[in-house]
Amino acid sequence: ALARGLGDVYKRQMTIFEYLMFLRIQKSLPLLKEGESVTKTAGMVGFTSPAYFGQIFKRYMKCTPKEYQKN
Predict the structure, then answer these.
(1) b vs e for 47-56, b when ≥16 Cβ sit within 10 Å of the residue's Cβ?
(2) At what angle do helices 16-33 and 2-12 cross, to 10 degrees?
(3) Which of 36, 44, 56, 59 is deepest in the core (most CB within 10 A)?
(4) Would you place residue 6 in the very low, low, confident or very high pLDDT band (cuts 50, 70, 90)?
């Protein structure tokens, strides 16, 4: 998934900041699947605000962190 995601990055011409957010979201995926809380996951991947993490997560994944955990 990450390799495919990187191809998407180049196609979209992301800024460094956007790329960093993308990597943080990618890093959060296995943590969420393992059942880690959204709040703890947000902190573990470098977000100080769980709400902001949720907003960025939804932008990249097209679902909320909780929805991702359920599927």
Answers:
(1) beebeebbeb
(2) 160
(3) 56
(4) low
Taking Cα atoms as reference points, which of 34, 31, 21 lies closest to residue 60?
21
Residues ≥6 apart with Cβ < 8 Å to 64: 54, 57, 58
pTM of the shown model: 0.79
Q: Where are the alpha helices (DSSP H) in 1-71?
A: 2-12, 16-33, 38-44, 50-61, 65-70
Other CB atoms within a 10 A radius of the CB of residue 37 amount to: 15
User: Which amino acid would we find at residue 40?
Assistant: K
* Block residue for tokens 């960025």: 56
Q: pLDDT for 24-69, tens place per residue?
A: 999 999 999 999 999 999 999 999 999 999 999 999 999 999 999 9
